[in-house]
Amino acid sequence: MRDKSGSCAIVMLIIDNDVWIANTGDSRAVMSSSMGATYTQLSNDHKPSEDAEKERILKAGGQVY
Question: Which among 23, 25, 35, 42 is placed 20 to 30 Å from 6, CA to CA?
Answer without folding.
Answer: 42
